[in-house]
Amino acid sequence: MTGRPATREEKLTALALWVLAFAALWSTEAAVGFTRDESVYFAAAEGYSQWFRLLLHSPAQAFTDSAIVRAWDYNHEHPVLMKTLFGLSHLLFHDTLGLMRDATAYRLPAFAMAALVPALCFLLGSALYGRTAGWFAALSFLLVPRQYFNAELACFDLPVAAMWLLVVYCFWRALESTRWGIACGVAFGLAIATKHNALFMPFVLSPFALWRAWQVSEGVPEARVRAVRFVGLYAAVAVLYGLLVVFLGGPAAFQKKFLLLSPHTLFFVGLAVGSGVLLRDLKHVSLPVTRALVPLAAMAVLGPVLFYLHWPYLWHAPVDRTAWYLAFHATHNHYAWFYLGTLMRGPPFPLTYVLVKTALTVPTSLFAPMVTGFVALVGRALLSLSARTREWVRMPTASEALVGVNAVTSILIISHPQVPHFGGVKHWFPSMTFLGILAGAAVARGCFAVWEVLKARRPSVSPLAVTVPVFALLLVPALLGSVRVFPYGTAAYSELAGGLPGAATLGMQRQFWSSHVTGVLPWINEHAKPGARIYLHEVNGFSFRDYQRNGMLRPDVRPVNSPFDADIVAYQYHQEFREHEFLTWQAFGTRTPVTGLYLDETPQVIVYQRPE
């Protein structure tokens, strides 16, 4: 397991991929509607940006808890790194310079984060499996329609996938440089400041760091002793925190007595100082062992510090407000979800849900190499366990194991029957980046095998003569599918599902998040009477406002909350909300829609108009 530096050519290629992805997202985002979550984040970002205005004009007032709560209390169930970037981008590019429309200015940081994924996939994939694998991993990620759709949004799911990938890349590069170990801690702090699922990362990476330290300390007793002391320090601090919980009378009392001047804080400071002292001492004995352990110390110390610093809402009450945030996600509510003809309202959820959903939404030409790459890695690992079969295969390296474990971590977390299942596939995007790298490895092996056969017959044949057609065969169907469904990404289904009609027949969720209403807004703008009352089912008030702000919906029409109060109803087809269509029939006295959004003849949004 060695982290090799990228070559100059690879760095330039990664930069070009970032620019290409950023430009593609920016040039197409205007057609994408506003999801319910996104409009909430727009509103939160707008409020946060006002705090920065206050900070410039009245710093003393800005740092008071009352001013912070007034600005930052809204949507405090999520960290604020991305929302802060959304707000500052809007403040600069829309409010100050007037260069962009309202929504584009908010979304710009999301494009920058999402564009990191192809660049990092190329760097890591090329280093582990060669340039062909890196190129395929980079090009294929945004060709998955649902991944491209989410990349267009000012939300957190693609940014946290990018940050997860960045943390792993820094962790891998830390094996060659202590500075990369520090960067791993910084990246981890930014990751948990992006979304809560990054909190699982230390549990994924720690075994690799400890195994690496154990390996490279073999034959160096002094280094191994110091490495054991390092681990012992963390174990001791964990035990001390556990004893505090017990002796203080439980988690609630532990939380209440977690103050600036308390044993709780002292233990953390001791951990930080002790880590630095032990690593400095270890550096003089064994640099490889030090490099293996630095990322763990950096994540443990820098992660919490950066998380606290990035979120003003925590500054005056860090323990209580962080505890509320963690409890919110630990007890997250369940949303109804239609899956294979069953309306799932609560746990236990099907164990195979994530696998099935991935197979039915990722273009089959991309899903097949993902499965091939992952199965090949697992197969090699299993065959290498036996002395009889070990000589048949090349044992996976620790770096490959790192990719393989991260390829399944998010999937395994969401697959737990008690974890809420909603949101399509976005909650396991961190796994999809690594599955893309394994897909690239499978494609690269296949291309090389074909080239070897052709070269035996025609020695002058170039590897590109194989790679280009294979890439076209696998990537073009995904590209065409993405173009066909754009901008309605949450309705995308693969060839295995039979496309959108097949998915509807299977009883799958046809679409969600309300953004497909853009398909009927032009009709509403043309046919609604002046001042018409509009009920846009599943579209919240913020989104209604954003459609008007961005010129996608006439400013004179008014939102209402019931079909009975409406002149026009746009019903978004959801199995769990069928009664809203029935209520519309009752209110309007008709069951005949006037228009709708139909993708491959599959109803997505159905519009009814009250008869005069």
TrEMBL record:
<feature type="transmembrane region" description="Helical">
    <location>
        <begin position="184"/>
        <end position="211"/>
    </location>
</feature>
<keyword id="KW-0328">Glycosyltransferase</keyword>
<feature type="transmembrane region" description="Helical">
    <location>
        <begin position="434"/>
        <end position="454"/>
    </location>
</feature>
<feature type="transmembrane region" description="Helical">
    <location>
        <begin position="258"/>
        <end position="280"/>
    </location>
</feature>
<feature type="transmembrane region" description="Helical">
    <location>
        <begin position="360"/>
        <end position="383"/>
    </location>
</feature>
<feature type="transmembrane region" description="Helical">
    <location>
        <begin position="231"/>
        <end position="251"/>
    </location>
</feature>
<dbReference type="InterPro" id="IPR050297">
    <property type="entry name" value="LipidA_mod_glycosyltrf_83"/>
</dbReference>
<dbReference type="GO" id="GO:0009103">
    <property type="term" value="P:lipopolysaccharide biosynthetic process"/>
</dbReference>
<feature type="transmembrane region" description="Helical">
    <location>
        <begin position="110"/>
        <end position="129"/>
    </location>
</feature>
<dbReference type="GO" id="GO:0005886">
    <property type="term" value="C:plasma membrane"/>
</dbReference>
<keyword id="KW-0472">Membrane</keyword>
<keyword id="KW-0812">Transmembrane</keyword>
<feature type="transmembrane region" description="Helical">
    <location>
        <begin position="292"/>
        <end position="311"/>
    </location>
</feature>
<feature type="transmembrane region" description="Helical">
    <location>
        <begin position="395"/>
        <end position="414"/>
    </location>
</feature>
<keyword id="KW-1003">Cell membrane</keyword>
<feature type="transmembrane region" description="Helical">
    <location>
        <begin position="323"/>
        <end position="340"/>
    </location>
</feature>
<keyword id="KW-1133">Transmembrane helix</keyword>
<dbReference type="GO" id="GO:0016763">
    <property type="term" value="F:pentosyltransferase activity"/>
</dbReference>
<feature type="transmembrane region" description="Helical">
    <location>
        <begin position="149"/>
        <end position="172"/>
    </location>
</feature>
<feature type="transmembrane region" description="Helical">
    <location>
        <begin position="461"/>
        <end position="480"/>
    </location>
</feature>
<feature type="domain" description="Glycosyltransferase RgtA/B/C/D-like">
    <location>
        <begin position="78"/>
        <end position="214"/>
    </location>
</feature>
<dbReference type="Pfam" id="PF13231">
    <property type="entry name" value="PMT_2"/>
</dbReference>
<keyword id="KW-0808">Transferase</keyword>
<protein>
    <submittedName>
        <fullName>Phospholipid carrier-dependent glycosyltransferase</fullName>
    </submittedName>
</protein>
<dbReference type="InterPro" id="IPR038731">
    <property type="entry name" value="RgtA/B/C-like"/>
</dbReference>
